[in-house]
């Protein structure tokens, strides 16, 4: 078993910090402590729990520059995007501030007649939040902030690629008044994640890959506790022939595909374009991607930094090789960039088809395939030809036309004239291999409680 996590800077490949991994006995102690702490935390008035989360948000904002640098150093995310994420994730706190009381308070159903009925929303208990590195603020806040407000205790396991950020969450939650026996950041990699599955916990909330998600759901199934999975996607975007501004559509599509180096669960992963505008769209798209500034993610003007994980370079290389062998036309990139750091050139293929890996399996990097279609029906068929079900997008001037396509998508989220977007006001959920359950919205608030029905004869 590994005793330390080495935090490597993806821009250099160098080890920046070494952090001890939690031991098995420390983990057992933490579980006992948090199980007890949760009982007291659940009795703290909801408004007081909420106030701690609001104070946490203010501390995060007050320290955003330092936090952004920590995130950029460990994940390679360009500094402006790290700041965007930190500031943007505050909308989860605002969502809780304005909605938690409404959705967590008890509901009186009948107060007349012989038998009165009401519903009380009780916390689950001690839950595990096993998290990902690509948007640790967004995906972390979706789970541990909502869980804490609902009165749960949380064992938060950050990804081994975002450990520094996870430790900061713990520090500022404690400073904001969350008791130390209610939240614990558990430092470790997959092995520690695996140990969490063996513990007597009351819920598992996971963000990460399909493979790990499936393993977690299977392993903990016998406990019959809530399991939520937010997994990967192969999100399609269809550009219809009636769009008014082709250049604008290309810029927006490229940003959806390449923001955070394509390492977003809802990044645009494949593009279908009507044959009537295909050439114009592809030229505008290639021109836009070619204009991106690549380099040191600490620099303000950099849009494409290194990938977070060195291993993903091999995945991208394999998809490139496969696409070339099957006849796709390489328009940009297709290779690693530097001999230090995990850089991959933004890569655009056209004339792709579904025999190619890059149209079927998550790339999770700066790589996109574009395919020509001759009708909406063909686009619908191809968009649906996937084992994933996270998001799907249509760019069209005609709302009715777009709606007719989006209604047919078996995905948790659909977009008209936008893409790669998450809002706390609506549920975030994946279907098929993209996940189970919802975070955010009223559903996401209620995900961390269990209803108790009262039948009362006064
Ligand atoms: P991953 O599955 O490799 O790891 C995720 C977490 O699981 C990490 O904390 C890891 O240590 C832990 N883990 C690994 N093996 C484990 C095991 N056997 N038992 C318990 N825990 C284990 O995923 P990743 O590379 O960190 O994240 C990238 C993936 O996450 C992509 O597929 C992406 O699409 C997906 N993602 C989805 C969403 C969403 O909201 N749907 C958001 C962000 C990322």
TrEMBL record:
Residue intervals of the Aldehyde dehydrogenase domain: 3-453
InterPro entries reported for this sequence: Ald_DH/histidinol_DH, Ald_DH_C, Ald_DH_CS_CYS, Ald_DH_CS_GLU, Ald_DH_N, Aldehyde_DH_dom
Record keyword Oxidoreductase present: yes
Active site location: 230
Gene Ontology molecular function, alphabetical: oxidoreductase activity, acting on the aldehyde or oxo group of donors, NAD or NADP as acceptor
Key words of the record: Oxidoreductase
Cleaved signal peptide residues: none
Family (UniProt): Belongs to the aldehyde dehydrogenase family.
PANTHER family for the chain: ALDEHYDE DEHYDROGENASE-RELATED (PTHR11699)
Name under which the protein is recorded: Acyl-CoA reductase-like NAD-dependent aldehyde dehydrogenase
